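Weekly modeling sync, notes
Attendees: S.R. (lead), two postdocs, one rotation student

Agenda item 3: backlog of single-chain predictions. S.R. asked that every request posted to the team notebook include the full sequence so nobody has to chase files. The rotation student volunteered to paste the first one in as an example of the format we agreed on. Action items at the bottom.

Example entry:
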Amino acid sequence: MAPPLVSVPMKKNKKPSLVLTLSAAGLLIGVGSVAYWLLSQRQHSSSDLLVGANIIPGDALFAVSLTTDPQQWQKLRQFGTKETQAELDRNLVELRDRFLTNNGYDFQKDIAPWVGNEVTIAILAPAITSKAAPKPVTTNEDAASVQQSMVMVLPVKNPEIAKNILAQPKTLKQGKWIDRIYQGIAIKQSEGQAGENFSAALLDGRFLVITDSPKATERAIDAYKNQTSLATTGGFAENFPKIADYQPFGQFYVNVPTAAKIAAASPNRPLPAQVLAQLQNNQGLAGTMTLEAEGIRFKGVSWLNPNSQRVLAVENKAGQMQSRVPAETLMMLSGGNLQRLWGDYVLTSQGNPLSPIAPEQLRSGIKSLTTLDLDKDLLSWMKGEFSLSVIPTTPKEGSPNDFRAGLVFMVQATDRQSAETSIKQLDDVIRDQYQFQVQPAKVAGQPVVNWVSPYGTLTATHGWLDGDVAFLVVGAPITDKILPKPNNTLASTIPFQQTVPIEPNPTNGQFFLDVERTVKNFVLPTLIPNQQALLDATRSIGMTSAVSDSRSNLYDIFIALKKVRNTTPLPSP
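Predicted structure, as returned to the notebook:
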């Protein structure tokens, strides 16, 4: 499972941070969010790492690199709708004005002739000035002392032009430029300017480093010279190459334990000590974004702290459930071992206020409703592949249409006798405690059990597939769509094949959502900002995941997008 992202406090009096702006732009193209090269023992090409990874301080909270290729940006704007295109353009114009136009620069004239193929923006964690544990932030004055700084790393392909730009910067509207030296590196920084003050330095003629504070520039130089950069952070050099790709649109990295520490100091959503300790097991989350003909691909990797005692079980046994559900399935989520997944959830969720539901609440809820023990009576035999699917019903003339779809749960039982004992107990509870009729029946010649409500409505059906796969259907009566095994399965459909990645293989889980058909037939709850615009731009979403080794997980996500007809040119650079 990927480690949760944690919110961090930002400067109160500053303009919206670049990271937040980029995050908003990212959501508009399909996120909220990799060919695999397994290289040996830190012997990695610099092209396999995030651009500027040898300069960004190792405790950086977040880093993202973006392409400078106008053709890729134009290709990005072909996806989505006119609305998402306009929103993306608005964000690009804001970035251009903030960093270029407002400072007298034109990208095509002043930047493009010397900048490399990608630029990286990083947010640094607050500098630690004492070994003492940080105290919780309680006042605005305290908050001012834990502000994050920004670092931009621009690779230089023409050192002479870059040197001239740095030697003769544009005249400031307010304040002045001053020169100073730090560790033998010449630094030029603004002074007396209202709002943001920038500082810039050229490292070895290969990288122009721009920050929003003199201290951040010094930290970047220290990281570069002392080899305490992101490239030397535990697990980074070993895992980031797994998601390296040729000419990506963008890449990102999140430092999970650092983010957790900052969140723990926030007065808004403080993390309990036990949650903070759990998050220290996770070290990093990284991803690569590439643009393809029909959408956007994200390849990600998450890894544990090298010093953590926790290890991952390398067990990738999923990949069959999509062949047991029909072609019209709207959504399917599968995994390789439900018992193990629950164990991982318990490990990372106990005491975590951000978890959707507390493990103990779920245990006690099932016990109260069914008298069954979740761990002993149910999960003990659910060690095989499982899936949760939404299958629409086919309306029948003259029959009530209480549900428009059925929710189908399937799980491969590793002990059918124990499973049948638990299911029999469940039938008894449904009959005796809730006054439902428990009726044996047959579908396509196969025995099933129906739960019929006191009002005479079929509420649920359970049975077996292939001898060892238990199923439960709730909602619409769609059991006849999975019994007998459908000839046209979800796995055979073009949307599934074109959306759900085939790698990594073997896999421990997959996800598929037909966004177009789901939005047309159902009203969805609002979960993220600009959700409707994103849904209108998306055709389908697919994901495949796997445990790479005892320390890391791999993810491959593809978002199939609609395209804008007659796209307009990019906003002026």
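Discussion: group reviewed the output briefly. DSSP finds 17 helices and 20 strands in the chain.
Action items: rotation student to repeat for the remaining queue; S.R. to check formatting next week.
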